[in-house]
């Protein structure tokens, strides 16, 4: 190895130490040698201590000898300055000029309501330790809960205080439902329970503000809601019977109306067969793989 090092073909990853973790790297990949320049270049994005060590092929102990001086000199900054030895700490080059503190990232992330798990995933920490950050932000009025009366609610979300509450009204729901939306999407957007959202949706459908994309079965789980002024093709009984004037399979119904085959059979096809409006091409075998459905 030494002759190759002397000829410049190989480089030592730790040129200043006789270390048991010494590695050799092709001279063309000299960027993997831990120097001040290469560490700062690697840390243009948030990096943990483990990521820095793995990238340069070092043990955690040896990696500290390289990045600790950069932290002390202020060239590397952590996102948790109040807990410099935290195992959740991440570092970024100071010259990036971005406020990467966890509190700043939480406030930026919570411009729309977010759950505990979503915030914890953003920070890369266990959600059990999230309260140490959210509690101080709530106390100083920078963050608020969507359900302050029920702190431990499983539906609890957090939103930045400078964001106005999104009120469920005819205007806001019309603006949100320019494209078809599910009950779940509406509930998450407005930060409400699905049961309450369903009551509001029924009211707006009855008033003609919203319309169902599947009026053939109002309680279908795959039901979507859209602004009544938007012209889209609805999945109605008439549309299904018209489509089945030519015998159709379950898969063809799925592709035509964007519904699961199980949903199509249970919610739409069987009720129409019972009414005599649809028939099977192979009536003696209900579940035949070549079964088709047709209307007269």
Structure description:
With 296 residues, this protein is of the alpha+beta class. It folds into 4 domains: 2-94, Arc Repressor Mutant, subunit A; 102-160, Winged helix-like DNA-binding domain superfamily/Winged helix DNA-binding domain (Arc Repressor Mutant, subunit A, Orthogonal Bundle); 170-227, Arc Repressor Mutant, subunit A (Orthogonal Bundle); 239-294, no CATH class. 39% of the residues lie in helices and 10% in strands. It contains 13 helices and 11 strands. The protein has helices at residues 2-6, 36-42, 49-55, 60-72, 102-109, 116-123, 131-139, 170-176, 183-190, 194-206, 237-243, 250-257, 261-274, and strands at residues 10-12, 24-26, 47-48, 76-78, 90-93, 143-145, 158-160, 210-212, 225-227, 279-280, 293-294. The strands form 5 sheets. It has a 3-stranded antiparallel sheet. A two-stranded antiparallel ribbon has the order 1-2. Helix 3 (49-55) crosses helix 4 (60-72) and helix 12 (250-257) packs across helix 13 (261-274). It is elongated.
